[in-house]
Amino acid sequence: MGRWDVSLTRLCDKYFSWGNNMMWILVGSVGSVLQGADMNPGDIDVYVRDQQDVLRFAEILDEFSLQARSPMEYSDHWLSSKAEPIFTQTFPSGFTWTKGRWNVENFKIEVVHISNSAGIPDSKDGDGIWEGGHYIWELSKPVKFKQYVVQTVPLEIQLESNLRRKRQERVDAIIDALKKHGYDKELISKALSTRNLPYFQEVIGE
To answer: Tell me: the pLDDT tens digits for 159-185?
Structure first.
């Protein structure tokens, strides 16, 4: 497996030299690591605000696309090709996303737009903020990566999503980073649901 930082460097090199002005944000483990969390990323997850920008990223990353259509259908092993750079998938719940996926320097990059969240809770006042929801765009956090500045989902919001998914290892890593580097008290009170906020306050010692 390649290194995520090498893959992200290639992505940034291509994007910023392309001259596009898209709204995109790093989510998941790479976004966490860039904010000081101790994790071992398995891929790079990018969300775009506008659906058409998945296809624009496909143009930017075209050199990494397969020549022939991927035989893997739409599994986790599917990769973008010149014949099929992106696809849209709707699940029984109604959840719908459009995505492209490339192997860049032996490390996967996935670019996603979510057009229907199928009712996943996303609220500043009780239900908690979802890292794939619409609040992430106004609350994104700029982080320095080499000579670039990239937008990430704040750890406070990522914490809520990982608590929901019961990913305790990531929860612990995020809380350790928040303890070490500090956190936004106003944001944490909005990002965490009324169910999860007491847990954080107890762990953090408030």
So the answer is: 999 999 999 999 999 999 999 999 999
Q: Would you state the structure tokens that stand for residue 201, as one six-digit string?
A: 């306050």
How many helices (DSSP H) and strands (DSSP E) are in the chain?
8, 7
C-alpha angle 98/87/13, rounded to 5°?
Answer: 70
pLDDT at 71: 83
Assessment of whether the complete model's pTM goes beyond 0.85:
yes
Structure tokens at 6: 């090498």
Contact partners, residue 167, CB within 8 Å, separation at least 6:
none
Beta-bridge partner residues of 47:
25, 112
Q: Which residues contact residue 194 at a Cβ distance below 8 angstroms, ignoring those fewer than 6 apart?
A: 126
| Alpha carbons 88 and 86: distance in angstroms, whole number | 7
38: closest CA among 46, 30, 47?
30
Query: Containing H/E element for 181?
Result: helix 168-181
Instruction: List strands edge to edge, sheet with 107-116.
Output: 87-90, 96-104, 107-116, 44-48, 24-27, 148-152, 141-145
